[in-house]
Amino acid sequence: MKQFSGILIMLILAITLVGCVSGQAGDISIINSWEMEFATDAVGNLLAASTNNEDFTGEKMDVVVRFSEDGTFILTNLSSNESWDGTFEKKTSADNATLFEVTFADGAVADAVVGKREYESGNQVGSLTLSLEDRIVSFIEKED
């Protein structure tokens, strides 16, 4: 199980940094609203993407997650009007990412990695990768 967890963390970090030159966490905080980019199964097969993704022809959905200062979160699938809530706590951090443990109200536990992507163009965006038992969901900072 520990080996699987280690591999999963490495996969999360790799997905978080795809297309990036560097991944400085800097001033990126989990206390924010995030919108889904895509979801994959545990081995990386694409399951769904944001409705904004014009290149993907499979299932599309609008999913947002909001982490609050009181240590709670709510994850909402706007496409189906379903939502899940729970709590989160910081586990560890490095210069380029912070790991959180996310606990859903039903007791399911996931990892969330927050960092900053910097693309070759110089554009930067906050990135959150949520690793669930059977899927990995990539989010970016929601623009208000």
N/C terminus separation: 40 Å
Can you write the helix and strand succession as a string? HEEEEEEEEE
Strand content of the residues, in percent? over 45%
Would you identify the CATH architecture? Beta Barrel
For the CA atoms, what is the radius of gyration?
A: 14 Å
Number of structurally distinct domains: 1
Instruction: Return the average pLDDT rounded to an integer.
Output: 85
What is the CATH topology assignment? Lipocalin
Secondary structure: helix percent: 10-25%
Observed structural traits:
about 140 residues; mainly beta; Lipocalin; eight-stranded antiparallel beta barrel; globular; disordered N terminus; Lipocalin-like domain-containing protein
Could you explain how this protein is built, in words?
This protein has 144 residues and is mainly beta. It has a single domain (2-141), classed as Lipocalin (Beta Barrel), CATH 2.40.128. The chain contains one helix and nine strands. The chain has one helix at 2-16, and strands at 32-41, 46-49, 63-67, 72-77, 82-93, 97-104, 109-118, 124-131, 135-141. Strands 1-3-4-5-6-7-8-9 form an eight-stranded antiparallel beta barrel. A hairpin with a 4-residue loop joins strand 6 (97-104) and strand 7 (109-118). The longest helix has 15 residues, at 2-16. The protein is globular and about 35 Å long. 24% of the residues are buried. It comes from Dethiobacter alkaliphilus AHT 1. This is Lipocalin-like domain-containing protein.
